[in-house]
Amino acid sequence: MLKVDPINPGKEVIDEAVEVLREGGLVAFPTETVYGLGADSLNKDAVKRIYGVKGRPPDNPLILHISDLSELEMVARDVPPSIYELASKVWPGPVTFVLRKSDSVLPEVTAGLPTVAVRCPAHPVALALIKGLGRPIAAPSANLSGRPSPTTADHVIKDLLGRIEMILDGGDTFFGVESTIINLTTDPPVLLRPGPVGVEDLEKLANLRILVPAFAKGLEEAGIALSPGMKYRHYSPQTTLILVEIGQCLTQTAYLKYVKSLINEYIEKNFKVAVICSRETCPDYEKTVTLEIGSRNNLYEVAKNLFKKLREIDELRVDVAISESFEERGVGLAIMNRLRKASSKIISCVPTPTPTSSPP
Ligand code: TXA
Ligand code: MG
Do residues 112 and 21 both lie within one domain? Predict the structure, then answer.
């Protein structure tokens, strides 16, 4: 476990981590999204070990991390100039492209698929590691399969201590949700996973339309042909988590009233309840433990705290947790996708009748 300055990573620490990777070891490292669990992408045994230590199903491929756009041709083929142009606008950054793979990419990285997921991260530690190794790093999120992705070194320790060779502690990650993934091998391109960069923004930058299937919103499971990883259950706390969708509650007052009535139903049954709520609404809940996730006016803040709060639920020892919903715009789509996947039950808000509007 080594501390590393997230902005100016020291050469000694990076050299040590690179040495571990060269010897076939696994290194957990911070990226701007979540912590990754890295292996030398050309070392078959090291890549295979990633699946073992995470308990990851063997049909769920990994992302290749490169340190510069010029390295794209090493891992992908038939990349049209328009995609280079788009990549140059969003990289380094939290966007992953699925492209046709080149022959040099190991089948263990892509779980046997003819395509490869590639991203150039913006985090100085991640970039220094890839540059130091001189090859792409294969890295999924550094959590046990099914658990929320780690946004602190502490989360990595909880899941993987003793199973991997090194953890680089660069503090909290910046965005807190995993990269936006777009499959560019189909026409039109398809959003496989919403992330920090909104589809609306990508569409404008690329001047193209991106299909947003229901599974990318977290509303249904993905078919294996579309995206192998998306069919697995994710992020779920052990505690029952109920997500309350906005539904027909068009005002915040109506929504809040409904969530409160739901909480009261559980309290009346002697359940201990926790609620994931925004800075604006948390003060309105009494008799419940509140997990404040950030301001409704700053969805980046909500995204950054999301996985931390999901992990905290299980530490509270409550009988049930209830989560508010957030607006599905920009990074909000990623927040709602993760919340829907994490919850064991989704309820749609219906306005509760007020005494004046109820029938006589
Ligand atoms: O922000 C991120 O993307 C983080 C950091 C560490 O870079 N990584 C990450 O990796 O979230 P992981 O393995 O947890 O999620 C990668 C997702 C999986 O759902 C996987 O199925 C999908 O990408 N994926 C990888 N290769 C693919 C491919 N060739 N076709 C379709 N989906 C692919
Ligand atoms: Mg993951």
Answer: yes
Are residues 256 and 200 part of one domain?
Answer: no
CATH number of the domain encompassing residue 187: 3.90.870.10
Whether 222 is in a domain gets the answer: no
Instruction: Tell whether 179 and 312 lie within a shared domain.
Output: no
Span from the CA of 268 to the centroid of ligand 2 (angstroms)? 38
Which atom of ligand 1 is the closest one to the Cα of 116? 29
CA of 145 to the centre of ligand 2 (A): 7
Nearest alpha carbon, ligand 1 atom 30: 227
Residues with CB under 6 A from ligand 1: 31, 33-34, 36, 60-63, 94, 96, 98, 110, 113, 115-117, 119, 121, 139-141, 178-179, 181, 192, 227-230
Residue 176 corresponds to which tokens in the numbers above? 């807190």
Q: pTM for the whole thing?
A: 0.95
Count structural domains, the chain. 2
Report the distance separating Cα 44 and Cα 353, nearest Å: 61
pLDDT confidence of 288, banded at 50, 70, 90?
very high
Q: Are residues 111 and 42 in the same domain?
A: yes
Question: Buried (b) or exposed (e) across 22-57, using 16+ Cβ within 10 A?
Answer: eeebbbbbbbbbbbbbbbbbebeebbebbbebbebe
Position 232 in a domain: no
Question: Domain of 252: which CATH number?
Answer: 3.40.50.11030
Q: Which mutation among 56, 174, 181 tests ligand 1's pocket best, with the greatest number of atoms within 8 A of CB?
A: 181
296-311: per-residue pLDDT in tens? 999 999 999 999 999 9
Pocket test for ligand 1, best of 90, 227, 233 (most atoms within 8 A of CB): 227
Domain containing 70 equals 2-217
Structure confidence by residue, pLDDT tens digits, 203-232 = 999 898 999 999 898 887 655 445 666 656
Number of helices (H) and strands (E), helices first, in the chain? 11, 15
Which residues have C-beta within 8 Å of that of residue 261, sequence separation ≥ 6? 352
- Residues lining ion ligand 2 (Cβ < 5 A) are 141
Q: Beta-carbon neighbour count of residue 115 at 10 Å? A: 18
